[in-house]
Write a structure and sequence with these properties.
Length: 113
């Protein structure tokens, strides 16, 4: 499987956003969240780059960030940073669903014979 460059770039963008939030407003929660989510997304990109990709970590993190930042964007009405992170997260979510759909666990029915 090729390297998940998009996933690594997404992780770096989220981490850089946390660092920028700290530098601009001295927001320690922004720094912590940005670095934590960036690390999760980076590890998810690493998992997606394996011979047998495992996309669930990156999918779950992208879904959580899209929901959280989408709600913040809706509340504040500000495109930066919540709207941008929400949109990038939705793009990452869709991209991962399309790229790695055959590696996702499917629910099975356990009907008796």
């Amino acid at each position: 499987m090729p390297v998940d460059w998009f996933g690594y770039a997404y992780a770096a963008t989220v981490a850089a956003g946390g660092i920028m939030g700290y530098a601009k407003a001295a927001s320690i929660p922004s720094l912590g969240a940005g670095l934590a989510f960036g690390a999760l997304l980076g590890y998810g990109a690493h998992l997606n780059s394996q011979d047998q990709p495992r996309p669930m970590l990156q999918l779950g993190t992208s879904l959580f960030l899209a929901g959280l930042m989408g709600a913040r964007w809706n509340r504040s009405g500000k495109l930066m940073p919540a709207g941008v992170v929400c949109m990038i997260s939705v793009v990452a979510l869709v991209r991962n669903l399309v790229s790695y759909n055959r590696y996702l666990p499917l629910p099975t029915s356990s009907k008796g014979a």
